[in-house]
Amino acid sequence: MKFGTYFAYWEQNWDTDYLKYIRKVADLGFDVLEVGAAGIVNMSDEALEALKNEAKKYNITLTAGIGLPKEYDVSSSDENVRQHGLAFVRKMLDKLYKADIHAIGGTVYSYWPADYSKPIDKAAALTQSIKSVREIADYAAQYNITILIEVLNRFEQFLLNDAGEAIQYVKEVNKANVKVMLDSFHMNIEEDNMGDAIRKTGNYLGHFHIGECNRKVPGKGHMPWSEIGQALRDIHYEGCVVMEPFVRTGGIVGSDIKVWRDLSENANEAKLDADIKESLELVKKQFIG
Asked: Which tens digit of pLDDT belongs to each residue from 159-172?
């Protein structure tokens, strides 16, 4: 397993300078830095090259995540919106390749967060989504990029809420570079048993996000990390395990993730670093065994 963290633990904006976090996460003991694909899209070729070279220098694997905005909803029944979304995703994949990023996860199959002010037609959206992800997967294949289908809780999305739905979805897409992405925060809400959900996903699991039920770093909540680690060992998981903690209010990150109180205990950057380093040691002990 490779262990990583999402850049937004330290940030209040999705679009930021990712370069500065590469050495930071390497010094903290991580193998992986996950960046925001929405920010990658806006980077110049020169900046993408610099990011790639910095990651290579510090032996850091880069991965990316995104929740597609509603105007790029690839599950939309409006063909103009769907095509607009596909064009955006193709541009995003072009940029990811230039940064040597070969995995993109999140709500790449629909949009985020779901708009529940209007009626939901899940069956129709599912049909459109599968059609779109097949096209996305074919385009991504030329770059050896894996599309990671993240399972989200019912309050943020409606298409895929548990591992069973995601497995069936990936089977229907039927593309070698499309995998399931589980997230302990969402699993805590939706799954009957977290270990069983991981074992059921098995070889379909391509990426794993971790964080406490309160979105703090692992170890500052009541997640069953020993059980999760055993399940990952049971399926011989060798992919990335990426922390996705959100502990600070403010900015677009705090607003989008709904962090309405300071979960960091007014931590400065040094304390944030110390907390996540301690968390990494805990997770490695529980997951590697």
From this structure: 999 999 999 999 99
Q: Provide the residue range defining the domain that includes 62.
A: 2-288
Q: What's the burial of 62, exposed, middle or buried (CB within 10 Å: 0-12/13-18/19+)? A: buried
Q: Work out the burial of residue 123: count CB atoms within 10 Å of its CB; fewer than 13 is exposed, 13-18 middle, 19 or more buried.
A: exposed
Give the percent of the chain with pLDDT over 70: 100
> In the predicted model, is pLDDT for residue 46 greater than 80?
yes
CA 145 to chain centre: 14
Residues that are catalytic? 150, 244
| Residue 289 predicted with pLDDT over 80 | no
Residue 81 has pLDDT above 80, yes or no: yes
For residue 220, give the H/E element and its range. Answer: none
- The tally of domains found in the chain comes to 1
Name the pLDDT band for 137 (thresholds 50, 70, 90): very high
Nearest of 196, 203, 194, 184 to residue 241 by alpha carbon: 184
Q: Where are the alpha helices (DSSP H) in 99-214?
A: 122-141, 163-173, 184-190, 194-201
pLDDT tops 80 at residue 260: yes
Helix (H) or strand (E) holding 146: strand 146-150
Spatial CA neighbour of 221 closest among 277, 269, 282: 282
Could you tell me whether strands 2-6 and 103-107 are parallel, antiparallel, or unpaired per DSSP bridges?
A: unpaired
Strand ranges in 37-139 using DSSP code E only, listed in sequence order:
61-67, 103-107
**pLDDT at position 207:** 98
What CATH number does the domain containing 126 carry? 3.20.20.150
Q: DSSP 3-state assignment of 120?
A: coil
Confidence (pLDDT) at 15: 84
Cα–chain center distance at 166: 14
Q: How far is CA 41 from the centre of its chain?
A: 16
